[in-house]
Amino acid sequence: MTNESRRGFIGKAFGAVAGVGAVASLVAMKKTWDPLPSVMSAGFTTVDVSALAENKLEVVVWRGKPVFILKYSADMAPTDGRNVKVGDHYFSVMIGLCTHLGCIPAYLPDAHQFKCACHGGEFTADGVNTFGPPPRPLDIPPFKVDGVTLVLGEEGEEYKAMTAKA
Amino acid sequence: MAEFKKADSMLEWFDQRLGVVNFVKVMMTEYWIPKNINFLWAMGVVITVLFTLLLVSGIFLLMYYKPDVNMAFDSVNFTIMQDVAYGWLFRHIHAVGASVVFLVIYIHMFTGIYYGSYKKGREMIWISGMLLFVLFSAEGFSGYMLPWGQMSYWAAYVITEIFGGIPLIGDELVVWIRGNFYVSDATLTRFFMLHVLLIPLAILGAIVFHFYALRFPHVNNEEGEFFDFDEEAEKYKAGDKKGSKVIPFWPVFLSKDFMVVGFFMIFFFYLTFYHYGFAMDAINFDKADGLKTPAHIYPEWYFLWSYEVLRGFFFDIAGISGKDLGLIAFGIANAIFFLLPWLDRSPMVKPANQRPYFKYWFWILMADLIVLTIYGKLPPTGVNAWVGFASSMTFLVLFAVLPFITKLEAKKVGGK
To answer: What is the largest CA-CA distance in chain A?
Structure first.
């Protein structure tokens, strides 16, 4: 009997040590796969939008992703909650990745429309999906308006106002 | 230590220490294979040979390949292809081998389905085989990323993006898998590790398990006949080789396999030397560019059918988005074959053409997979999108109705 309980205790103690070790190893392995701190902290892109041409798509890179900046011409109607006014002009600021599977849609200036070549998805100039498999409008990255520059990666007043409406 | 007497021969010396005589008997000369089989039973050995070729060619490529976003493309397309003597040969063998191994895996799989070699005791053979299929798919996908061309990059992008569809943790999971917000150096090096070490180790283990799973239920035969292997083996050993229903794995079964392997290798090296283009997409000879999507993205031919199921649902149904429906269908398509032994409710182990209802199911499935494969490569616009939807639905419906069809069949044949 004493032998049995001694054996049982040793077994349980071994199980506890092995269990803690296994969980700790899994945590370490998970964290080894995490993005590095340098990746997480690199992440602000500043764009001067005052010199952009109307109805011509500007693509900048933010966190490795293309960001579309489209300056509206007078004949294009802005949408509440999708466009931001910087100076006298309205702009679309959107992550340029199709919300279906992440291809980069092309801008057709005459039609004021984005078209994705991968699976035929279409978006309006303000990024709303109108046809095909994309499940939602193009995502809007966090941004801040600072005079005539846009700071991507920082949540400014205009961004908060837009996401509150959407 | 056991008492060792002086060995009279080298064989005896090894036998004393490693039991080689008994080992060869158990593994080779007295491992019994049915006699009533055809060339389709050689596919397992063909896959093993191809896997060996992939392993060896991969070892040579590994000597010059550099897993770094700035160096990977050139290390493949300049160093290996132009500087290394016969580097091109190893790359062609590796690329063609990766493509052709899937062809043979599919033949092997559908042979199993046709002859009913997945049920009545053979479930674990089937499950371990499907596990190998999944591992080979992961190996193919991770390897495809390494040359760091445009197709490498965008295939990696699209496939990792798929995990974003998992509820709640999707977005974080994608970043975790990639090690960055986008497919980057961290992604390349970790998939390099998976491709050259972790997945090959898992494949080797799964192959051993797959072979072991064959030992008790034994290999199926052309008529699905069940017989006493021990009894037939005794007959063979007693000299009645003609009357026995079995042959030894070595030398009789393998000698037949080697002939098939011989013909197959002629075909394989014909492709390697003269017709390798199908396995090396032209777009992948442009270096990866994360800001320029190729006009048309498609996977290698062996993933086209499941890719077409993924994108077959391009509109919302009952409030579920087309994207989610595609993901669900894609998930089902990749998992459903595992369940085949339990979806088939008929006890019949016969070639499909001798089964009253299953034969229709089998050939419709074949036709559907061919349609999915063809349309998976075409741009999904206009009528193509609808063909994709119809063939994706057909695939799902086929598996949904299989239990009912086979139940009816069981009734009709009365438990035979």
So the answer is: 92
- The two structure tokens encoding residue B151: 């197709």
How far is it, in rounded angstroms, from Cα B87 to Cα B84?
A: 5
- The CATH-assigned architecture of domain B298-416 is Orthogonal Bundle (1.10)
Q: How many domains does chain A have?
A: 2
pLDDT band at A3 (very low <50, low <70, confident <90, very high): low
Structurally, at CATH architecture level, domain B31-294 sits in Up-down Bundle (1.20)
Same domain, A90 and A10: no
Out of A46-50, A112-116, B32-36, the most confident range is B32-36
Q: Are residue A107 and residue A47 in the same domain, yes or no?
A: yes
User: 3-state DSSP call for residue B309?
Assistant: helix
Instruction: Give the pLDDT score at A2.
Output: 60
Beta-carbon count within 10 A of A116 CB: 25
Closest in A34, A102, A135 to B321, CB measured: A135
ipTM for the assembly: 0.79
pLDDT beneath 50: ranges in chain B = none
Axis-axis angle for helices B43-62, B87-114 (nearest 10): 150
Residue B180 tokens, joined: 């960055």
CB contact under 8 A, B314 and A135: no
User: What is the arrangement of strands in the sheet containing A65-71, beginning at the earlier edge strand?
Assistant: A57-62, A65-71, A89-95, A83-86
According to the model, what pLDDT value does residue B319 have?
A: 78
| Ranges of each domain in chain B | 31-294, 298-416
Short-list B265, B224, B204, B187, CA closest to B111: B224
Find, among B336, B352, B353, the residue nearest to B400 by Cα: B336
**How many angstroms separate the CA of residue B322 from the nearest CA in chain A?**
6
The torsion angles phi and psi of A123, rounded to 5 degrees, stand at: -135, 150
Range of the domain at A20: 3-34
Residues of chain A with a CB closer than 8 angstroms to some CB in chain B: 30, 33-36, 39, 59, 61, 63-66, 99-104, 117-120, 132-135
Distance of alpha carbon B104 from the chain centroid: 8
Give the pair of three-digit tokens for residue A145.
Answer: 């308006």
Per the confidence metrics, is the pTM higher than 0.90?
no
CB atoms within 10 A of CB B40: 16
- Mean pLDDT, rounded, of chain A: 88
Q: What is the mean pLDDT of residues A16-21?
A: 97
